[in-house]
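Consider the following assembly input.
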Amino acid sequence: MIFKTPTHYFLVSGASEGLTPLNAFDGALLRAGIGDTNLVKMSSIVPPRCQLISPVPLPPGSLVPTAYASITSDIPGELISSAVAVALPREPHHPGLIMEYSARGSKAEIEETVRQMAMEGMKLRQREIKELKSIAVEHKVQKVGATLAAVVLWDAVPG
Amino acid sequence: MIFKTPTHYFLVSGASEGLTPLNAFDGALLRAGIGDTNLVKMSSIVPPRCQLISPVPLPPGSLVPTAYASITSDIPGELISSAVAVALPREPHHPGLIMEYSARGSKAEIEETVRQMAMEGMKLRQREIKELKSIAVEHKVQKVGATLAAVVLWDAVPG
Amino acid sequence: MIFKTPTHYFLVSGASEGLTPLNAFDGALLRAGIGDTNLVKMSSIVPPRCQLISPVPLPPGSLVPTAYASITSDIPGELISSAVAVALPREPHHPGLIMEYSARGSKAEIEETVRQMAMEGMKLRQREIKELKSIAVEHKVQKVGATLAAVVLWDAVPG
């Protein structure tokens, strides 16, 4: 393998205003607790037997494989949301599926959509779902806002 | 080096309908045989002496460096296509070049375009082409459709 | 850790015309000296004590974690620019921050914006800036043009 396969994962989310869309995204990452790492975006599987852990501080500047949804907006008053869902299979030797979704709308709507997306993906794989986790965040834009929801993959529980 | 350099590669493609654009993309990945891995998108070189192999099953949830083209559409009746081309140099110590292209249009058109793009990139590098491989797929959208063509890099022939 | 943490970095930029937007981007990468590598895009931190070096040739086909800004345009006469800024903290055990920005406009404008973005991001982290580096490039489009500015992370000084 080119890269090690992750063994642990956790879910985070955050929202922020910022000077520019990228600054708002940066602020959302900081609120989510992953603002001082190098996210490497990937699509979107939980390896078999990968363990859910509570969010942990990651080494600053480390490269972190992450599945995430993010949206920015510069329309004052607009409500934006991001969500991720993780569908875990009944069979422990099967992988789980991550889905990401961002859009205008409330946290509740966007989270419901992403959960349906994950259920649909497991149906397509003909895998029964043991557990469906999700996290979502919404933000009402003042000037320039961003939301982010992420599944962070990692290979150890630090400490 | 931060990452290992790949030693093998293969070409795949797929198309699918889905509940949402991301579900359609997920379905296209499954059809292509890489739906249970974590694609890490990269731009777009075949390392020197990297060997073409037939598509192989990859470990579920593994992180896989991949150059790919993908497109989604929700316009019923629209024809969408994705293609990738790999131009290999005459000199074996030189790297090869990957190009990706997706658009509305037929498989034949999109594949022809991506092949021209790869030839152009080798011309810019003043490298003679020994071989030009490509793969393409087209899909007529019913409700929400996606196409995907990919060059998957790997570092071993499993098994 | 899934990936090694980079220990060195360098800044590059380039611009080019091309047959297609992707060919123009490829040309810009070649001008920047990183056209024969596999860029893995990441967001956007300089690890603590990571050392700035002069651009070095990277092994062809190697996977290279890179933070970059890029833009393409097919509007003849349009002026496009890309810039990256690196803000380094006074405290050496803190990470630095990379910001990327591309837009229509002159190199001077875009570089000024990206520097402000990096300062803003450090202010949000309440970290004093020891040094602020940036690089930018502009290009007047003839038919299809691209600009690119990048911070390349690496783990050794080759040679």
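The beta strands of chain C are 8-17, 38-41, 45-46, 51-52, 63-73, 79-89, 96-104, 129-140, 145-154. Ask yourself how this observation constrains the way the partners meet.
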